Every structure is written in structure tokens, then in C-alpha cells.
UniProtKB/TrEMBL annotation:
Pfam families reported in the protein's UniProt record: TetR_C_7, TetR_N
InterPro entries: Homeodomain-like_sf, HTH-type_TetR-like_transc_reg, HTH_TetR, TetR_C_Proteobacteria
Residue ranges constituting the HTH tetR-type domain according to the UniProt record: 15-75
Keyword annotations: DNA-binding, Transcription, Transcription regulation
PROSITE patterns recorded: HTH_TETR_2
Residue ranges the UniProt entry marks as DNA-binding: 38-57
Protein name as annotated: Transcriptional regulator, TetR family
Length: 205
């Protein structure tokens, strides 16, 4: 009897080919930029026909979205690992902020961020793709975490402040001529938490 719940060999091969395309496209986008990475160049790098590439992705924008999903998926998994199932506490928030900083400063995260910043005005579609698939998704997870203790409106406010502070810190670190180590990351997060105004302060410890 045929198990219809398991993917067929054809489906598995199709999924593998798609993953190969996304992996190669990711490397090219991050190294060469969005404008310089054409579908023809990606097809040449794959060593196959353009028809194969177009069979999986209808446009360069669709392929870029898949690349963003690849990186955001890994990023989100690592951050949500310290958020999922957690009720709000200051130690849990500290762990989440430090993990977020670590993820934001990874090489591929930095390269993707620089690509969107440098080419987003000329190609607004990549800015929209990145923002909706990246920051918006992540902020939802952070808001859910805050909402385990605070009213929804307050959770949204705390998310906005925390995300702005951490991403601003990332930008500051990237602009510095000297490397910034873990002790400084921890000092920043401790300073951030100490200066946030917490509702019901007596219940947040």
C-alpha cells in the first residue's frame, strides 16, 4: 500500500533543488548585492537551464523573499528559543536581548541588513520584503513575551522601545572602528533594562 502522507521522490528532489537555488542565490545576493544579482547570473551559477530556475521562482523578488525567509528563519528560531514558553521576567528579558544582539551581529545578518539599507531606496520591494518577514515577525514574538505580564498596549510599547534600543546598539557597534565584545553587550543590556520604566515595578523581578 502506498503511503500518501510521505513526500514522493519527485517532491523530495524538487525541494532539494529549491533549497540549492536559495542557498546559491543567498550567497550571490549577500556578496554582490541585489541589483547586480540577476536571474540569469543565478541560473549560470546553478549550472542548469533558466527554465529550471523559473520553474521554482517567478521573479527575482520571489527568490529574494525566499533568501530572507532562510536567514530570518534561523534568526527567529534562535531568538524565540529563549522566548517561547517564557513568562516575562527581567532575567528572561536579559537573555532575550543578549541573544538578539548576538543574532543581529552575525555575518549573514549584517550583510543582509547592509544590502537592504544600501539598495532599499532603489528597490523598495526588498525593503518591504525584509521588513515584513524579518522585524515584524520578530517583534510579534517579543510582544507575545511582554504580554505574559502586561496589558497588550503596554507590551507593544515595551517591544517598540526594546527593539529600537537593541537595533540602534547594533548600528553603533557596526560603526565603531574597534571590535566590541560580550562584556560591553551585557553592560548595554543591563543599562537598558535598568532605565526602562516598568509598570507594576514590584511584580517584574
Amino acid at each position: 500500500m502506498i503511503d500518501t502522507t510521505r513526500p514522493s521522490k519527485r517532491e523530495l528532489n524538487k525541494a532539494r533543488k529549491r533549497a540549492d537555488i536559495v542557498r546559491i542565490a543567498s550567497r550571490m545576493f549577500l556578496k554582490q548585492g541585489y541589483a547586480a544579482t540577476t536571474m540569469s547570473a543565478i541560473a549560470d551559477a546553478l549550472g542548469g537551464s533558466k527554465a529550471t530556475l523559473w520553474a521554482h521562482f517567478a521573479s527575482r523578488e520571489d527568490l529574494f523573499a525566499a533568501v530572507v525567509d532562510l536567514h530570518v528563519g534561523t534568526f527567529a528560531h534562535d531568538v524565540e528559543e529563549v522566548l517561547t514558553g517564557q513568562s516575562f521576567s527581567l532575567p528572561a528579558l536579559r537573555r532575550a536581548c543578549l541573544r538578539l544582539i548576538d543574532c543581529l551581529l552575525r555575518e549573514n545578518s549584517v550583510l543582509l541588513y547592509k544590502l537592504v539599507v544600501s539598495e532599499g531606496d532603489r528597490h523598495p520591494e526588498i525593503k518591504d520584503t525584509f521588513y515584513t518577514r524579518g522585524p515584524v515577525t520578530l517583534r510579534c514574538a517579543i510582544t507575545d513575551f511582554f504580554a505574559t505580564r502586561f496589558e497588550w498596549e503596554e507590551a507593544v510599547r515595551l517591544t517598540q522601545i526594546t527593539a529600537a534600543a537593541v537595533t540602534g546598539y547594533r548600528t553603533d557597534v557596526l560603526l565603531r572602528p574597534e571590535p566590541v565584545g560580550q562584556p560591553e553587550h551585557e553592560a548595554f543590556v543591563d543599562n537598558l533594562i535598568a532605565h526602562l520604566v516598568w509598570p507594576d515595578e514590584g511584580e517584574t523581578g
